[in-house]
Specification:
Length: 222
């Protein structure tokens, strides 16, 4: 949590606790310094705790209440393309390829997996940076990459920085990536489903076989 979120959390807890205490105080008129008063103070603390537990577990995804402590919901599968400056033995650069990004997110944590037809990556350090003053929404992560075809290189590390762009019809993630081998490239994907989490490139291709699903500048209806 940043400082603003801590203030909202503390203020919200105090307000919830105060409401739980004030309502029975106005109804029953008990003494402020009494066991009855202490009982409702404890009840207020419990209610505030349950509220925040529910918020961080589920409610942060709900359309209106999620504005309280805002986190964009990136859960699900994202489809699109990536380009890389990697060259083969003949010095040729590969054309853009289909790309699958799978994000599993809770309020406090986020993880990223990615698939192409020949490789997969998994994140091991992730951060979601939000800056209202700059209007920045950025997903950054470090990843480990593995090739799935015989004869390809083994595991290597890399990093990616993806800007979140929210439009009326979809959500886009786009930005650059780098690998320790010196290659770099560009990723552009759209959220195709907020509920489905694919486990492989082939699984995503089978589920969304329509080519329009992979065009990141188009709508999300496939």
């Amino acid at each position: 949590m940043n400082q603003t979120e801590v203030k909202i959390f503390a203020t919200g807890s105090i307000i919830i606790g105060a409401i739980v205490w004030i309502i029975p105080f106005l109804i029953n008129g008990f003494e402020v310094l009494s066991l009855e008063s202490l009982k409702y103070i404890n009840l207020g603390i419990t209610v505030a705790g349950l509220f925040w537990f529910s918020y961080f577990k589920w409610a942060w995804k709900w359309n209106y209440i999620r504005k309280l402590l805002y986190r964009p919901n990136l859960n699900g599968t994202w489809l699109g393309e990536f380009e890389s400056d990697w060259r083969n033995d003949q010095g040729q650069v590969n054309p853009p390829k289909r790309f699958v990004l799978v994000i599993r997110q809770h309020w406090f944590t986020i993880s990223v997996r990615a698939f192409t037809n020949i490789q997969k990556t998994e994140s091991y350090v992730e951060t979601l940076m939000l800056d209202d003053n700059k209007g920045t929404k950025l997903l950054a992560y470090l990843f480990s990459e593995k090739r799935s075809r015989t004869g390809e290189h083994g595991s290597r590390q890399g990093a990616a920085e993806l800007d979140l762009v929210e439009t009326e019809i979809n959500k886009l993630l786009e930005g650059h990536f780098w690998t320790q081998a010196g290659t770099r490239g560009y990723i552009r994907v759209k959220q195709i489903s907020s509920n489905d989490h694919m486990d492989s490139f082939e699984q995503a291709e089978n589920k969304w076989s329509n080519s329009s699903c992979w065009e990141s500048i188009q709508g999300s209806n496939c």
